[in-house]
């Protein structure tokens, strides 16, 4: 099974061990945030799946958090996770963060595009109203030299993902520019949805 969290812009998910008849439930964000970061425990529900009971350990004492579940249906995220990934790159987190801050000053919508030049991964942003353009230095490497990688995202959302990584590098996997991309680090994969941008006519600066 999966444990997932989303704010409708990006989604974090991971595989977990569940019983075959485990129900699908949605827990309030404030309850999940109150759990210890290294929490491992059991989640039980009542017969109607309207109440959840989370077992926690507080200084050696067992306790139970009881909360209401949401009745809404969780998005079918598995349908948008790219599986036939023929585009993959390795992203330098520190270099990408610096480039994203500059991209935000260029594009008022905080939009940018990844693009590969040779075997290097770059970040480019432009403002069609002012004519300002920015092309970063290399911020990573393209794993698949036979496939050019171009995809546009929101800079603020990607910054949020990168801030949560504890690694110097993060892998990016994608299949098509209009489908979500998976950013994988040691805390688990994140799914980030792209923004629409005319990528076919995107020309690297100086070309």
Global morphology: elongated
- By DSSP, the count of extended strands is 14
Tally of helical segments: 3
Mean pLDDT: 82
The percentage of residues in β strands lies in 35-45%
| SS content category | mainly beta
> Major sheet: size, sense and barrel closure?
11 strands, antiparallel
Which blocks of ≥5 consecutive residues have pLDDT under 50?
A: none
Oligomer: single chain
User: Radius of gyration, Cα only, in angstroms?
Assistant: 20 Å
Helix content: 10-25%
N to C succession of SSEs: EEHEEEEHEEEEEHEEE
The CA-CA distance between the termini, in Å, is 47 Å
Short characterization:
With 207 residues, this protein is mainly beta.
Strand and helix layout:
Elements: E1 2-6, E2 10-15, H1 29-33, E3 43-45, E4 51-58, E5 61-68, E6 87-92, H2 93-106, E7 111-117, E8 120-126, E9 133-135, E10 140-142, E11 150-154, H3 155-163, E12 169-174, E13 181-185, E14 188-192
Antiparallel strand pairs: 1-2, 2-14, 3-4, 4-5, 6-10, 6-12, 7-8, 7-11, 8-9, 8-10, 12-13, 13-14
Helix pairs in contact: 2-3
